[in-house]
Design the sequence.
């Protein structure tokens, strides 16, 4: 068989739908009905600030960016998460969450947001990005990475 037999294979490539999107669209707040500001701190933390994470071979800013980008791809246009603040000399970080939801479902929205944060977001940081190294035995036992607050942004 000749090396050139598959020379025109690119004409037969079907790119997966998620990959076709490529670079995420620019954030447009008018596309979302509700916005929240989320403040996170490590639960049962072993570090006093994000600089100290290097001792545990964790790069918090890079891994947070990876998880936020993956979260946005996974949830499409329904939910959008972005990093607002993460300073190396602080022990917390701030995110913005925008949701496309209908009407007066505030409690349902809060339950959905809590579920997304605890199951998707925190689990990805805890396991995939090895942030479990940054919390103590109590946090590991409870499988709880963060303490966080959710405030509506109006």
Sequence:
């Amino acid at each position: 068989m000749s090396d050139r037999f598959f020379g025109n294979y690119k004409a037969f490539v079907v790119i997966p739908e998620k990959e076709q999107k490529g670079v995420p669209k620019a954030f447009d707040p008018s596309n979302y009905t509700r916005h929240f500001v989320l403040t996170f701190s490590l639960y049962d933390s072993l570090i006093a600030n994000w600089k100290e994470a290097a001792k545990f071979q964790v790069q918090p800013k890079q891994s947070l960016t990876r998880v936020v980008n993956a979260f946005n791809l996974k949830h499409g246009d329904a939910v959008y998460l972005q990093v607002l603040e993460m300073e190396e000399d602080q022990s917390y970080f701030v995110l913005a969450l925008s949701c496309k939801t209908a009407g007066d479902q505030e409690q349902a929205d809060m339950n959905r947001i809590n579920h997304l944060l605890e199951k998707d977001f925190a689990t990805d940081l805890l396991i995939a990005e090895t942030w479990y190294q940054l919390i103590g035995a109590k946090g590991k036992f409870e499988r709880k990475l963060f303490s966080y607050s959710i405030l509506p942004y109006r």
The mean pLDDT is 86. The first strand starts at residue 34 and ends at 42. The helical segments are 17-20, 60-75, 106-128, 137-142. DSSP finds four helices and four strands in the chain.
